[in-house]
Amino acid sequence: MSPTLADHQLDFAFPDVHADARLLVTVHRTLRVPDDDTTYGLPPGLGLFHLTGADSVRHDALGWSATDALLPMWQAEAAWFRFSSPSGYPFLVRMSMGGVNAVTGEDFADEVDFETEDYFEVPEQPWLDGFRVDDKTVRQFVAMPLGSGYTAAEQLAGADDGAVRIQVTPLRASKWRKRVATRRAAPQQLTSFDALGIVPAPASAWSMGMGAGGSITQSIATPIEPQKNWNTDATSAATLRIVNSADWQALTGTDPHHRPPTITEYQQHGYPWFEWYDDSLARRGESKLSGLKTVREIGEERGEHPLPDNASFDPPKPHVVGP
Predict the structure, then answer these.
(1) What is the pLDDT of residue 310?
(2) Which of 52, 151, 26 is nearest to 96 (CA)?
(3) Are 205 and 106 in contact (CB under 8 A)?
(4) How far apart are CA 134 and CA 108, in angstroms?
């Protein structure tokens, strides 16, 4: 069953598997951390990106499917993804950024690679802020124009297919039923931002992909479920198309969301910072993405300045959150 789009979130529901099998995916606006030699904490979300169905625009002419979701972002804007299961039902999640796996850096395949573990599991991994570099850091997701050579897929695969793909596989219902009584008796308590009170398709001129931005402290949890526990026959997928906000009105007839804050504006609000790192679950070693050039580094090689407002600053001490 295909996911639905409502209230600016992707709703992956698997009623044929189990009534509890439901995963919600949202994309959050945030500060783009400086692309420099410092590793920063996690800046909190500044509200949801407003996802819109591609069926509301001339999707056929752009090579998009009517079931795709449009994600409006300003050039050089950053984003992070949140994955939440209302019941705590486990899911296997894989993400492709332009045809490259965001966890391994390898070409994105249709089938799960259980040997290399090219995925992460929810609820153990509730957020993803960037491309996995090593056991402690990710490179922030930053929107950049396709064909410019700035996106991760253009670096690693030579081309970017202009799609953010999210593939979701639910746990087998038989496994869930065996553990649900125990979970209800002693529910897991995960610290979240909410608990802390913090609010190959042809590329069009409007399309963008994800480049690698500044360094952020975030671990990607090692998978803990055995392969046999996943119901791979029930896998569902969604495709997002990043649309440049500068062209959003021409494409949709509606105003784009407001521009991202500058570092100065962000600091004036005194937002707290966070750190998501669990030493007991952190996936070890580097990935193919560890050699990825950042947007700033590519720009410097070309004599370009692709990142406005990239001044370094002393980040505040982050709140450590995790399972």
Answers:
(1) 84
(2) 151
(3) no
(4) 19
